[in-house]
Design goal:
It is built from two helices and ten strands, in the order αββββββαββββ. By secondary structure, it is mainly beta.
Amino acid sequence: MPVAAFADAGHDEDRAYGEPGDPKKPARTVLITMKEGEQKMQFLPSEVKIRKGEQIKFVIRNNGLLDHEIVIATLEENLKHAEEMAKNPDMEHDDPNARRLEPKKSGEIVWKFTKAGEFDFSCLLPGHREAGMFGKIVVR
């Protein structure tokens, strides 16, 4: 097996939660705000409902005072990734399903949800998911 196949392990294009979207095609916009306060960190909204096959343009805004990120994946993948982040808290993401944002910054993820199910979005910076910074994507 070629070495490149190992390097791309875990970034398979056939993800359970869909595929990167095409920014040139129409998409429904969903605003997600990240913030912290009162001993809690959160995404607003914490649940998003999507139709199977729908392309979504997530507009993400960090309204907090700390860096935050959003990673779209299955719950199992995000929990496993969170363990890796705990060991390497400065890990940078260059994946189409993730964005890290400094305070008062915004970004976008365009994603097409090709399969029905319940999926996760989390901030995987150490301690953030545990403080409540996660949400659910329901695809029907």
